[in-house]
Amino acid sequence: MWWIGLGVASSIGLGTGLHTFVLYLGPHMAKVTMASNECNYVPDLMPSRWKFEYFHSCPEYNGPVTLSSLEIFKSVILEASLWGLGTAIGELPPYFISKAAALSGKKADEL
Q1: Alpha helices in the chain (DSSP H)
Q2: What is the pTM of this model?
Q3: Is the pLDDT of residue 47 over 50?
Q4: Residue 42 CB coordination number (10 Å)
Q5: What residues pair up with 22 in beta bridges, in sequence order?
Q6: What is the domain range of residue 46?
Q7: pLDDT tens for residues 63-96?
């Protein structure tokens, strides 16, 4: 519900046009990527996948990064998909309001 709610908030712009991708999803994806590159594997999120505060500590790794982009992608695709679903849901109310206004057949005096 967290990521869907953020997607809805993103599509309505939080009243300012500021998107939750910039505030939440983008930094989360960057945090997962940086932690994965430091550990050379995707570390477990603490305390769970649904509350992203910090990662389990990993042993220091100084070798070359052998982690594939696909592995990092798979670790953030659920959050990104839920955020995208929320964004799509947030676009529905303006669509239905516009459709109802068009079907009413009335014209605004300002136009």
Answers
A1: 2-11, 20, 26-39, 69-104
A2: 0.72
A3: no
A4: 18
A5: none
A6: 2-13+21-90
A7: 787 888 898 898 889 889 998 898 889 888 888 8
